[in-house]
Amino acid sequence: VYVWIYDPVHFKTFAMGLVLVIAVIAATLFPLWPAEMRVGVYYLSVGAGCFVASILLLAVARCILFLIIWLITGGRHHFWFLPNLTADVGFIDSFRPLYTHEYKGPKADLKKEEKAESKKQQKYDSEEKSDSEKKEEEDGKTEGTRNSGTDGSGGERHSDTDSDRREDDRSQHSSGNGNDFEMITKEELEQQTDEGDCEEEEEEDTESGPSHGKS
User: Which SS3 state, helix, strand or coil, does residue 129 take?
Assistant: First the structure.
């Protein structure tokens, strides 16, 4: 099995590398540059150095300004000039916003407490609502079980009455038809045979009685 991995160098990276090599070679050949170009590069380097120094001085100055305002107001006012100057953001975002101001006094503490109390009340209300909803759901479930229980008892009663009616109908049909058979125990058979013998003896006695009278 052969696998070809093709990872070409992008044209942008190639161009940037070429420009970097040319810049390094040009910097090493700085003494051979024309006088006008050397003067221009000198002014550009001085301007870049001044810009970096001004940013550093501005960072120190904003800290000093914050400290002065904080000491004068007793730690109540927090004023930052260019708060994102030393933050890990882009070059343009470092100068946005221009300033920020925060008041951390007793009123701010009261506002925070009020906000916390309002949040607690909201949570308490939501918990009460949830508890009431749960109670309503439980009541609905109990009512549903009761209704189902009554329906089930009614259904059982109907089923019992229907089964009784069917048994009565079957007994009537069995009594009406002579061909149907009935289950009889031994004791019942013996009682029936004894009754039959008694009836035969009575018949014989009745027959013998009038014959003797005639004679």
Answer: helix
- Cα separation of 74 and 84, whole Å? 24
Backbone φ and ψ for 94, nearest 5 degrees, come out as -65, -25
Q: What angle do CA 46, 51, 52 make, to 5 degrees?
A: 100
Q: Are 108 and 78 in contact (CB under 8 A)?
A: no
Query: What's the pLDDT tens digit per position in 60-75?
Result: 999 999 999 999 988 8
Contacts 24+ apart (CB under 8 A), 54-57: 55/85
Would you say 63 and 86 are in contact if contact means Cβ atoms under 8 Å apart? no
What's the whole-model pTM score?
Answer: 0.42
How much of the chain is in helix, strand and coil states, percent to nearest 5? 75, 5, 20
What residue has token string 């009889």? 184
Max CA separation in the chain (angstroms): 186
